[in-house]
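Researcher: Quick test of sequence recovery. C-alpha cells follow.
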C-alpha cells in the first residue's frame, strides 16, 4: 500500500468529550425541519449554535466524522449503488487510484490491506449502468473489477456512550 494512503487504515487517537458524544448521537437522528435547524439542535443540547457548528467542523476536520449530510435511497430514485473491489499491483496503486477516481460514478474509494486492496462504491443513474461502468474501469486500468451488488440493506446507527 502506498505510504501516502497507509495512514487511512490506522485508527486516530482523539479524545471525545461528553458534548462531542451527545452531538454525534443527536445528529444521527436527523435535523429538524425548521428555519434554523442547527440552532434548534444546539438548544436541545443546551449550547449556543456557534458552539455546535464549531464542534461539527472539528469532528469533520479530525475525520472523526468522515461525512455529514443527507442519505438518499438511490434505488427509490431509479439508480443503483454497487460495492466493487480490485487487486491492484502495489507499484500501480496511485496510478489506478487516479484512474478510478476520475470517473464521476465513483462515490468512495478505500485502500485495504488484502489481496483485494482497492474497494470503491459505484453510484449510477440506472442499475444497468453498474456493469457498464465496471467494464469501463477494467478497460481503463487493465485490472478486473469485482462487483458486489447489494443483496439486502442494513441500517446501522453508531451511538457513542455519553
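Model:
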Amino acid at each position: 500500500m502506498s505510504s501516502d494512503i497507509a495512514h487511512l487504515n490506522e485508527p486516530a487517537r482523539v479524545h471525545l468529550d461528553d458534548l462531542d458524544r451527545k452531538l454525534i448521537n443527536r445528529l444521527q437522528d436527523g435535523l429538524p425541519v425548521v428555519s434554523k435547524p442547527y440552532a434548534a439542535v444546539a438548544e436541545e443540547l443546551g449550547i449556543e449554535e456557534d458552539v455546535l457548528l464549531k464542534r461539527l467542523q472539528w469532528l469533520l476536520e479530525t475525520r472523526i466524522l468522515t461525512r455529514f449530510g443527507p442519505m438518499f435511497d438511490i434505488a427509490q430514485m431509479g439508480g443503483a449503488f454497487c460495492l466493487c473491489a480490485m487487486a491492484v499491483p502495489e507499484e500501480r496503486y496511485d496510478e489506478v487510484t487516479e484512474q478510478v477516481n476520475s470517473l464521476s460514478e465513483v462515490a468512495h474509494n478505500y485502500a485495504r490491506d488484502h489481496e483485494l486492496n482497492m474497494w470503491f462504491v459505484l453510484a449510477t443513474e440506472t442499475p444497468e449502468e453498474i456493469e457498464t461502468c465496471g467494464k469501463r474501469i477494467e478497460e481503463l486500468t487493465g485490472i478486473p473489477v469485482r462487483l458486489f451488488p447489494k443483496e439486502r440493506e442494513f441500517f446501522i446507527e453508531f451511538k457513542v456512550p455519553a
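Residues 7-61 form one domain.
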